[in-house]
Amino acid sequence: MDIKSAFLHGELTKDVFVDQPQGFENVGEEEKVYKLNRALYGLKQAPLTWYNRIKSYFQSCGFKKCEHEPTLFTKVEENNIIVVSLYVDDLIYTRNDVELMMKFKKSMQSEFAMTDMGKIKFFLGLEAIQKDDGIFLCQKKYVIDLLRRFGMSNSNCAHNPMVSGSKLGKDEEGKGVDKTLYQQMVGS
């Protein structure tokens, strides 16, 4: 599920003031600022205010926050369970009871403007393949996209992370390599 305008749901606990937007200044009052009632996209407080808002909503609905993963919430009713993972404004969830899932979806849609994206296909670079015998996760598409991004689609594979005798910082001809590009590759 995708929550529309998620950061706008965050309520500020401290006073935050912003300049008047360029082109929308009040004539003769250009030195005045606006006091925000809610978080805006781009505001450094926005992600935390949104997280606190959704966390308190989940807890008011009987969900428990995982001790080890702050974006994972669970709710147990009798022998039924629903597990929800939050990533910014996206939710993925699983359950063992259809009725509990429908209650959850209805509750969320009454509180937030949402789009139900259907069964998960991709999430955080993982591809989810759902079959009768289980859900399988792989990163094939992510890896192919990375190889394409860095111009390595036709590279030969190697069993070692680095070819023996290679020197970092220089290419095959001994020229210096782009440090930033290398950092992006490793970071990806």
Layout of helices and strands:
Blueprint: E1 2-3, E2 17-19, E3 33-35, H1 46-60, E4 64-65, E5 72-77, E6 80-87, E7 90-95, H2 98-111, E8 114-115, E9 122-123, E10 126-131, E11 134-138, H3 140-149, H4 179-187
Walk me through the structure.
The mean pLDDT is 83. The protein folds into two domains: 2-118, no CATH class; 119-155, no CATH class. The protein has four helices and eleven strands. A hairpin with a 2-residue loop joins strand 5 and strand 6. By secondary structure, the protein is an alpha+beta fold. The protein is 26% helix and 24% strand. The two termini are 26 Å apart. It has a four-stranded antiparallel sheet with strand order 4-5-6-7, with helices on one face. It has a three-stranded antiparallel sheet with strand order 9-10-11.
Name its key features.
4 helices; 4-stranded antiparallel sheet; alpha+beta; single chain; 188 residues; 3-stranded antiparallel sheet; 2 domains
> How would you spell out the order of helices and strands?
EEEHEEEEHEEEEHH
Strand order of the largest sheet: 4-5-6-7
Which percent range describes the beta-strand content? 15-25%
Amino- and carboxy-terminal Cα gap? 26 Å
Number of helices: 4
Give the overall silhouette.
flat
Structural class: alpha+beta
Helix content: 25-40%
Number of domains: 2
Strand runs, count: 11
**Low-pLDDT residue spans:** none
Q: What value does the average pLDDT take?
A: 83
Work out the radius of gyration. 23 Å
Largest sheet: 4 strands, antiparallel
